[in-house]
């Protein structure tokens, strides 16, 4: 059976570090509050007009491609995961292709919209393509430029302090070794609570879901307005309904339940235990969530990699950045069992087990 492996990995974070104290200059928050609730000390912000989600993704991809021992022209498929795309359409996949100068028109580009679990979903897709023999070098990128779309007033403080910018990339290739590579991936979703963690406007919803789902939260939609004025309204702008919305405690409770569940599900499938995990790379949602998951699974500190303290939550980029950092630090070696796990907006969640 052909298995796939991560043949090359890279990450890029922008230079500018924004501390909690920096944020406290523009909104009513404090270093103490942010560190206590999230573990975050600082995050990186991309350079406005100089960097974008796709350009940061390209920087990470260049490193991954080089480490995979291939050239850009060898990439035969691109998967781009982000919730903060450069454009509403087209997606970042083709923009990254252009940025990298990949002129191989045989290559396809797919954008996926799975937020915090985008990288795990993307890895599963890449794995299926490689296993089936359809592609040999799938470039998977997770990148975010959150800083362009956050509310920097006190109104947005519960969300804004959490997020940061960055990018991570891997090249997924066939693995010719025995019993190694991607052992399994598990993907799940439940749209019941879609609006609990969402970026609703601008969008083509026209208020549809609010009535249908009996959603009381005011997303700034106004029924009296005409076609053409619906996409973005004055009320949305005035009320700040053009920013991400999150019910933090609701998300927290589900996350700490779903992370352990989906990790155990993957381990059970391949007949392994939590004690077999050499390195767990959880999506960097919140340090408190990672610590809760670690305790629930009975893992030691050296079995879990966290870097949210430095980068904040970089959504689709957080797993590949953390994976790459752990690997560069020599904490992931050949033969190690690496577990990736994510939970996020949708809600969507998933895990992957890799024999490195
Ligand atoms: N600074 C200071 N005070 C704040 C801030 C802030 N940045 N944000 C919110 N507050 C205030 C609130 O206004 C509220 O004040 P009030 O009591 O006067 O009304 C108080 O702090 C408590 O607010 P809560 O939202 O209840 O705070 P909570 O203890 O739940 O912490 C947090 C918020 C950190 C978001 C928490 O709910 C959490 O970690 N949730 C998980 C969500 C998460 O991790 N999301 C990441 C993105 S999604 C993902 O990746 C899975």
Description:
With 356 residues, this protein is an alpha/beta fold. It has a domain at 3-175: Peroxisomal Thiolase, Chain A, domain 1, CATH 3.40.47.10. Helices cover 32% and strands 22% of the residues. Strands 1-7-6-4-5 form a five-stranded mixed beta sheet, sandwiched between helices. A four-stranded mixed beta sheet has the order 8-13-12-11, with helices on both faces. Strand 12 (337-344) and strand 13 (348-355) form a beta hairpin. The longest helix is centred in the C-terminal third of the chain and has 23 residues, at 248-270.
Mean of residue pLDDT values: 95
* Unique ligands: acetyl coenzyme *A
Side by side, the strands of the main sheet go: 1-7-6-4-5
Shape: globular
CATH topology of one domain: Peroxisomal Thiolase, Chain A, domain 1
What structural category characterises the helix and strand content?
alpha/beta
Poorly predicted regions: none
The H/E string reads EEHHEHEHEHEHEEEHHEHEHHHEE
The radius of gyration is: 20 Å
Total strands: the figure is: 13
- The level of helicity is 25-40%
Q: Looking at this structure, what is the CATH superfamily of one domain?
A: Thiolase/Chalcone synthase
Q: Give the distance, in angstroms, between the N- and C-terminal Cα atoms.
A: 17 Å
The percent range for strand residues is 15-25%
CATH level 1 class label of one domain: Alpha Beta
Tell me the number of helical segments per DSSP (H or I, 4 or more residues long).
Answer: 12
Gross CATH architecture of one domain: 3-Layer(aba) Sandwich
Q: What's the main sheet like?
A: 5 strands, mixed
């Amino acid at each position: 059976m052909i298995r796939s492996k991560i043949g090359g990995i890279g990450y890029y974070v922008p230079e500018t570090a924004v501390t909690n104290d920096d944020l406290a200059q523009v909104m009513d928050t404090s270093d103490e509050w942010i560190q206590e609730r999230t573990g975050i000390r600082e995050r990186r912000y991309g350079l406005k007009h100089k960097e974008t989600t796709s350009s940061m993704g390209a920087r990470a991809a260049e490193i991954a491609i080089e480490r995979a021992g291939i050239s850009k022209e060898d990439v035969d498929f691109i998967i781009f995961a982000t919730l903060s795309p450069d454009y509403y359409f087209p997606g970042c996949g083709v923009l990254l292709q252009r940025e990298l100068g990949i002129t191989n028109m045989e290559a396809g580009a797919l954008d996926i919209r799975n937020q915090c679990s985008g990288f795990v979903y993307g890895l599963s897709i890449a794995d299926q393509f490689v296993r089936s023999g359809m592609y040999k070098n799938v470039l998977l990128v997770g990148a975010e430029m959150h800083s362009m779309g956050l509310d920097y007033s006190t109104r947005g403080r519960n969300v804004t302090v959490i997020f940061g910018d960055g990018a991570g990339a891997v090249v997924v290739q066939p693995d010719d070794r025995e019993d190694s590579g991607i052992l399994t991936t598990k993907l799940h979703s439940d749209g019941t609570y879609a609006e609990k963690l969402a970026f609703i406007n601008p969008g083509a919803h026209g208020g549809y879901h609010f009535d249908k789902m009996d959603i009381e939260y005011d997303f700034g939609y106004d029924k009296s307005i005409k076609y053409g004025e619906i996409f973005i309204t004055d009320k949305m702008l005035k009320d700040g309904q053009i920013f991400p919305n999150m019910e933090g405690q609701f998300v927290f409770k589900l996350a700490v339940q779903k992370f352990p569940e989906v990790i155990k599900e993957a381990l059970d499938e391949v007949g392994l235990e939590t004690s077999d995990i050499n390195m767990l790379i959880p999506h960097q949602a919140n340090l408190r969530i990672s610590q809760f998951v670690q305790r629930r699974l009975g893992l030691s500190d050296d079995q879990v990699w966290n870097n949210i303290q430095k980068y904040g939550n970089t959504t689709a980029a957080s797993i590949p950045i953390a994976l790459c950092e752990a690997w560069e630090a020599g904490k992931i070696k050949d033969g190690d069992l690496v577990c990736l796990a994510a939970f996020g907006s949708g809600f969507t969640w998933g895990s992957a087990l890799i024999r490195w």
